[in-house]
Every structure is written in C-alpha cells, then in structure tokens.
C-alpha cells in the first residue's frame, strides 16, 4: 500500500490501509466465504469507504460481480 500511495502521489490526502489478517472486514461484516469456488479462504467483499475526520461518510459494497458502487465514479459522486 505504501508503494502504491507513493506512485499515485496521495501524500497525506488519502490513507491507503491494508487489512492483511482481515480483522477490519470481519469486524464490519465485509467478509465473504469463497472456499466453495476455489478461492481458498474467507475474503473481503469489494467495497470502497470514505471517511472524514474518522467518520464514515460513504460505503459502497458490491452485491454482484463487476464494479459499480465501489468504483471511482460512485466514490467521487459521494464526495
């Protein structure tokens, strides 16, 4: 995440946070079990989250394949 932030020059405007152990997504209910289709483990749902001063102002969780509510257009529209 650090390298991506440097490459995109987000500086201190955006926090790019990893959740390697899945603790955040588990605590927030943003997990899905994909073991039955061969993905090996419980994984994060596709989502985008916007927070302002530690308050969540937007969360877009995909309910189907593809990208809609977690995509750039939806997130930018919510800002």
Q: Could you walk me through the main structural features you see in this protein, from its secondary elements to its overall organization?
A:
The chain has 79 residues and is of the alpha+beta class. It has helices at 2-8, 23-28, 72-78, and strands spanning 31-33, 42-44, 47-52, 55-61. The strands form 2 sheets. Strands 1-2 form a two-stranded antiparallel sheet. Strands 3-4 form a two-stranded antiparallel ribbon. The radius of gyration is 14 Å and the shape is globular. It starts with a helix and ends with a helix.
Provide a count of the helices: 3
Distance between the termini: 22 Å
Instruction: Provide the β-strand percentage band.
Output: 15-25%
- Percent in helix: 25-40%
- Please tell me the overall pLDDT: 91
- Parts with pLDDT < 50 across at least 5 consecutive residues: none
For the secondary structure, the number of strands is 4
N to C succession of SSEs: HHEEEEH
SSE class: alpha+beta
Biggest β-sheet strands, sense, barrel: 2 strands, antiparallel
Strand order of the largest sheet: 1-2
Radius of gyration: 14 Å
Shape annotation: globular
């Amino acid at each position: 995440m650090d390298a991506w932030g440097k490459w995109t020059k987000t500086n201190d405007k955006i926090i790019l946070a990893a959740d390697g152990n899945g603790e955040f997504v588990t605590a927030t209910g943003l997990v899905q079990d994909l073991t039955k289709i061969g993905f090996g483990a419980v994984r994060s749902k596709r989502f985008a989250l916007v927070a302002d001063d530690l308050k969540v102002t937007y969360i877009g969780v995909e309910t189907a394949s593809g990208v809609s509510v977690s995509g750039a257009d939806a997130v930018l529209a919510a800002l």
